[in-house]
Amino acid sequence: MSPHLPVLQVVVPLLAAPVAALVRRPRLSWLVAFLAALWAFGSAVTLLHHVLSVGPISYHIGDWAPPWGIEYRVDQVNAFVLVIVSGIAAVVLPYARASVEWEIENERIPLFYTALILCMTGLLGITVTGDVFNVFVFLEISSLSAYALIAMGQDRRALTAAYQYLIMGSVGATFIVIGIGLMYVMTGTLNMADLAQRLPAMEANRTIPVAFAFLTVGISLKLALFPLHLWLPNAYAYAPSTVTAFIASTATKVAVYMLLRFIFTVFGVAFSFDVMNLDRILTPLALAAIVFMSLSAIYQPNVKRLLAYSSVAQIGYMVLGISLASVLGVAAGILHLFNHALIKGALFMAMGCVMYRVGSVRIEAMAGLGRTMPFTMAAFVVGGLSLIGVPLTVGFISKLYLVRAALEQGMWPVAVLVLVGSLLAVIYVWKVVEVAYFRQPIGDGSIREAPLSLLIPTWVLVLANIWFGIDAKLTAGVAIRAAQALLGVGS
Amino acid sequence: MSPSALVGLAVALPLAGAGLVLALGKWPNLREAATLATGIALFASVVSLLGPVRAGLRPTLTLMEVVPGLSLGFQAEPLGLLFALVASFLWVVTSLYSIGYMRGHHEEHQTRFYTFFAISIASAMGVAFSANLFTLFAFYEALTLCTFPLVTHHGTEKARRAGRIYLGILLTTSVAFQLLAIIWTWQLAGTLDFRPGGILAGTASKGVLSVLLVLFVFGVGKAAVMPFHRWLPAAMVAPTPVSALLHAVAVVKAGVFTILKVAVYVFGLDLMGTLAATPWMAWVAATTIILASLVAFTKDNLKARLAYSTISQLSYIVLGAMLANRWGIIGGGMHIAMHAFGKITLFFGAGAVLVAAHETEISRMHGLGRTMPITFGAFFIGALSIVGVPPAGGAWSKWFLGLGTLEAGQIWLLAVLMLSSLLTLVYLLEVPARAFFGMPPEGEVRPEGIHEAPWPSVLALVITAVVTLVLFVHPGPVFDLVSLVVPR
Fold first, then answer.
1. Domain of residue B14, residue span
2. pTM, whole model, 2 decimals?
3. Potential cystine with A386: which of A393, B76, B386, B481 (Cβ 3.0-4.6 Å)?
4. What was the ipTM of the complex prediction?
């Protein structure tokens, strides 16, 4: 393994982005983007393997030792997130080619891929860095490119959705930078490990709790924690299919990772939970997200919007796990981060197939698709079952750990609410399934199955849902080790 | 072939059969031959497990570890073997029956029907041979999901509404109660394996374990304990072979089988006997027995009446488990087999009447017995078995359940069993009585040309009726197998 891999993880895609814009030919820019994603995935897997077998890596950019220079630090937690982000990108990009050609004008396609790689670069950067200001820089890279990507949706409402996201996202980013600034003022350092050492001595100072508050609220906006989720449903519903599939599986996940990093690594579990009592606010909000957002999903007439509300509910599961602040709970959160990326990726890609053939993702448009697009709808059914948490799918593994973590602390009402969330998922998934399989097809019968270039990537994720649902030793093992590392307990 | 490979084969065979059926969809005769051949092969492989299991072996096959401490695995033990034997034998018979029924009744989408039927059987085998609660739960949910297309087979608004009730109740109970109970058990005991004597003893207070028991009993929605029974009558919109095999045998027996397994191998009878919730749940089952019988009286639709009769009979088995003694388990276990043969005969009869005479309401069956004597003769025998009187097999399971109530010192539960038998006698025997002796109302003439249903269907119901009689004369094998579950 090259010792420079941590930085190349970010630099290679960063350089690929302008190349994709410069080649100006849609197919060629797609190829650049695809290669960049493949490279990122390969490098992330190598890093994860190295971290699991050897141990965390600390990389000093330009050989400037921290805390003066920028440190890239790869451990069990973020190596796993790197794999998720780049893996989803590597699956989404083959899918993107046909879908994007259909949804976006030809001359904009190179810029589209540029923005997509930049977005991935930003997300990878947030994940890999060990420097809080660097986090902010990459956050802006990923956010700005995400706004542009969402605005490219076919529907004119995509523009307002992107604008809404821009405003909310900027408020969030500002809060984050204020939090970082306050910490810098107090400690004079931006390095995470250094901050973690210096902060405990200053806990009594009121600036630190204020910084903590700004950071958590800012990050919560980014990860769409209920009730700060208002930007998300429109953004997911009106963005191009590829963008929805990519962002839904990665952007909020990376924001959840940021939350993990700040509350566990930077501030520490003792300060976050014993002094600031973060669980008292996160647990109720997470439970509210699970129940109310699942209920909202039931009433959505547009399937992409329905899935978006479901995403907010699922983020509730992740935050709930984190708020339990136990190894099992945090592991459940991290596990669901991975599992939900697979679930929502598969579901949104199935909806992309529908969009490609039918031109709409409203529920009525699904009528009869069980017969006309059997493989697409079968993918949706399996993804939906995984979302519900049926055994032998990844969704089940997440629920298993989360419920166990809640029971471990004697919080059985929490366990019950988690399962109630599953039942609400049955309702909104089955609403779509019924229309697809029981209604007669509408139109002149010209709807055909989606092309293989869309179906194969979709089914790759669908099968991953089953694979990691049957053999969860790797994912659960990594999640447990990551949780132990974050909580600083023996491994 | 080694016994543990046979256990895996029992689950894999019907799955392979499903693939075969799908591939042969264009040639109906070959397709049905594939179903029959798979069924016979499955039955043969389950039968060949009988020897090793009776010799005290417990062939085990662990497929894989899902997460540390939780694995997907199969094991053949006496109770599961009995369930598998009954289900696989009756699958063959039902396939025979289906050929007559589905063609005689001009059903559509037959390939889809036979495919999902085979997958359902594979799931039932998975339930029967599961080595731990996790595997059981996985196949339990699979069984719910792959029977859904069978319940909604006709695709009508009525079928769709029934499908919603079916899925709604079965998934709600299994996820909200059963899964919670399973994860809780894992948390307390640190394992989910089925072990003789149970895994929960001494892991938590009696109060917590009582709550757990209640969660299990209501969480196994397939056992149809009131108030979670509505899915079973709803499922009757399905074609009759589905009601016969799945909703009188495979699905519902998977439910009561789960309760028996949980009682014996998760709680253990000694622990069960000390829990405050156990007698309460026995009374919940007793209430279901009586109430469902009373509701059955009010149903004029034959399949609906049979459905409520099933609800009542299933609670016999739940009651047997809740008696927490040897006789209760033996009676309950035997009732899995006895009720299966009796009830499937009744459903076959109902389907035959539908195909041959297009009648579904009991009040319109007067005089049909004279044109369809074999069907109604078999129906009579099946009814006797459900009532629990000689010369039908059902007499034995009720006998042992009665012994169980006495050993538990619950004389009133014995009274409930007696009363229920009396009620069953009246509401079930009304059907053959009307058919043989009933007279049509003034002025009504039945169309000419009604005769017995197609021969495969008639043959099927004769087979099950004969087995019902044989089980009275030779209950030994069933008794021996079940008594291995609760050694003295």
1. 3-483
2. 0.92
3. A393
4. 0.89
